[in-house]
Amino acid sequence: MQGFAGKVAVVTGAGSGIGRALAIELARSGAKLAISDVDVDGLAETEQQVKALGAAVKSDRLDVTEREAFLAYADAVAEHFGKVNQIYNNAGIAFSGDIEVSQFKDIERVMDVDYWGVVNGTKAFLPHLIASGDGHVVNISSVFGLFSVPGQAAYNSAKFAVRGFTEALRQEMILAGRPVGVTTVHPGGIKTAIARNATAAEGLDRDELARTFDKQMARTSPQRAAEIILDAVRKNKARVLVGGDAKVLDILVRLTGSGYQQLFSPVMRRMLPPTR
Ligand SMILES: NC(=O)c1ccc[n+]([C@@H]2O[C@H](COP(=O)([O-])OP(=O)(O)OC[C@H]3O[C@@H](n4cnc5c(N)ncnc54)[C@H](O)[C@@H]3O)[C@@H](O)[C@H]2O)c1
Predict the structure, then answer these.
(1) Which of 142, 171, 197, 275 minimizes the number of CB atoms within 10 Å of its CB?
(2) CB within 8 A of 90, min separation 6: which ones?
(3) Residue 58 in 3-state DSSP?
(4) Quick one: signal sequence residues (predicted)?
């Protein structure tokens, strides 16, 4: 992947946060865009901003958990632009709650969006990316795909799974000689609506959880996150950590092995409102 001018890039969850910032940075870099979201109002706002930058844009409501719709969407994007070079599987949701107080459906919902959404997007677009001769898959995991914390088991499971899936894909593309780069993204706390959009187990204080995230954890702007991600795509990096917090936490986890659990859990318990 040399640059972005003339490339066709697909961004899911483009109606807010990192997805919107990615769409804007890609537009600034000369890419053509296929943007989608379940939030049509947020998506329309992104579409307007991207168009104002002069980018060609196709904008569609797409729920990443709907596999058949995703497969049809991939063909429609390829037909519309004549090719597809990149997919940013970015759409995601968060949920707080200890395992004891979480329902099966809560955990399944997070897996459906955050993991199966990524699998659906990757599988739907991979044939088109290969056919382009210059493709890239960018899957958004999290620092929570590098280590676990109490109260985030569903999100941790999905983000670890995204990492496992994407790291295997990268090796497969290399071994098969496919012209497709693959990057796993691990953001730390990014200033987006993720915590405000999140759900929580019954009885937990959602607003307090969101306020704590916004005040104490969200550090990097979405625009900066997008710049870091696009730089990693240009360099075809296997893994990119977004934010100083992500870098420090990654080092701590690698230095301590499973010992990080003893270090992190009391800190998380002090920082976060109750998650049980
Ligand atoms: N904000 C952070 O601190 C942070 C940290 C690590 C990873 N991430 C990841 O970054 C990605 C983007 O999150 P964000 O922080 O920009 O959050 P956000 O809530 O601002 O944006 C997420 C977007 O995804 C959309 N979405 C949700 N469910 C969807 C579905 N089923 N189909 C299509 N679109 C859907 C939402 O409508 C929203 O527009 C997510 O995968 C998230 O897990 C965020």
Answers:
(1) 171
(2) 11, 12, 13, 14, 18, 19, 22, 138, 140
(3) strand
(4) none
Paired with 200 in beta bridges are: 96
- Helix intervals (H) in the chain: 17-28, 40-52, 67-81, 104-110, 117-132, 153-175, 206-212, 222-234, 244-256, 260-271
Residue linked to tokens 């983000």 = 159
* Side-chain-side CA neighbours of residue 59 (13 Å): 22
Ligand 1: centre distance to CA 257 (Å): 29
- Rounded to whole angstroms, the Cα distance separating 4 from 1 reads 8
Q: How far apart are CA 180 and CA 74, in angstroms?
A: 16
- pLDDT tens, residue order, the chain (276 aa): 457 999 999 999 999 999 999 999 999 999 999 999 999 999 999 999 999 999 999 999 999 999 999 999 999 999 999 999 999 999 999 999 999 999 999 999 999 999 999 999 999 999 999 999 999 999 999 999 999 999 999 999 999 999 999 999 999 999 999 999 999 999 999 999 999 999 999 999 999 999 999 999 999 999 999 999 999 999 999 999 999 999 999 999 999 999 999 998 888 888 888 889
Query: 166: CA distance to ligand 1 center in Å?
Result: 18
**Taking CB atoms and a 6 Å cutoff, what residues make up the pocket around ligand 1?**
12-13, 15-19, 37-39, 42, 62-65, 90-93, 113-114, 117, 140, 142, 187, 189-190, 192-194, 197, 218
Q: CB pairs under 8 A, 24+ apart, for 67-76? A: 67/116, 67/120, 67/124, 70/120, 70/121, 70/124, 71/120, 71/124, 73/36, 73/124, 74/124, 74/125, 74/128
